[in-house]
Amino acid sequence: MLITAYLVVSLAFTNTVLDNKECIAVRANVQDSNVNHFVNPAEIMTYVKGSGIRMHGVKMGELDQYGIRQAVLRMPGVREVIVYATPSGLLTIDVWQRTPLFRFVHSEDSYYVDEEGVEMPLSPNHSARVMIVTGEASRDFLRDSLKPIVEHINEKPFLESLIHGIHVEPDHTIELYCRIGDHRVFMGDGSEYQWKLAKLQTFYEKAMPIAGWQRYDKIDLRYSNQVVARKASSAKLKQVLSETNQTE
Asked: Which of 21, 33, 133, 202 is most buried (CB neighbours < 10 A)?
């Protein structure tokens, strides 16, 4: 009982001392700067100062820590912010960045979609190495239908190494761009994507090494229990073989 009372009094005293301490310095930390580089401490400080919130010389108990946090959260690329004061008079702003999942490229716009489905503008400071998505797609489709597909691809080492891009048609059907072979891979809509991608992996692992990587010009994953592959024309095969021989 006495210990509890002592702790309450001590905490109250500490808070009172901290509240009356003037802010003598402000420091911003980007906690995950080893992963992404969308924001840096100098930009954070400039952004906070530009918001008009007074900090230096203000008592810690009168500082608008909530306003500072909300201001930093409005910065593109920022996911989370924690603001806290220390007894030495230092106000610290800890920042965590958003992690982009893929980049949507369109003639009229281009932006990232992060792991939470939130749009992120491109940054002059940093270009993330993520899946490129092209074509015509609504924001709802990108967030609700395409995001789970990209996440699934990234979770599978074989698929992640195979697929380097996605194209979306105006009707929201999907074409996959693969690093191996000279063919087009049609996935149809975003339904049953786990099953479709599993079929693609099996086809690449078992059928392609036997048939040859240049044998087909179209692979269709839309059918329930099979992969439909269309043979390339003889003229195309001759062209591919000729180009291959020239590079060897």
From this structure: 133
Integer Cα distance of 189 and 133 in angstroms:
15
Could you identify the residue written with the tokens 């392609």? Answer: 208
Does domain 100-247 correspond to CATH entry 3.40.50.11690?
Answer: yes
Decide if 55 contacts 69 (C-beta within 8 A): no
CB 109 within 8 A of CB 131: no
- The topology (CATH level 3) of 2-97 is Ubiquitin-like (UB roll) (3.10.20)
Place of tokens 């220390």: 86
Nearest-angstrom CA–CA distance, 104 and 15? 48
Domain boundary assignment for the chain: 2-97, 100-247
pLDDT (tens digit per residue) in 208-248 = 777 665 677 788 898 877 777 767 554 443 443 344 333 34
Q: Phi then psi for 91, rounded to 5 degrees?
A: -100, 125
pTM of the entire structure? 0.78
| Count of C-beta atoms within a 10 Å radius of residue 29 | 13
How far is Cα 214 from Cα 183, in angstroms, rounded to an integer? 8
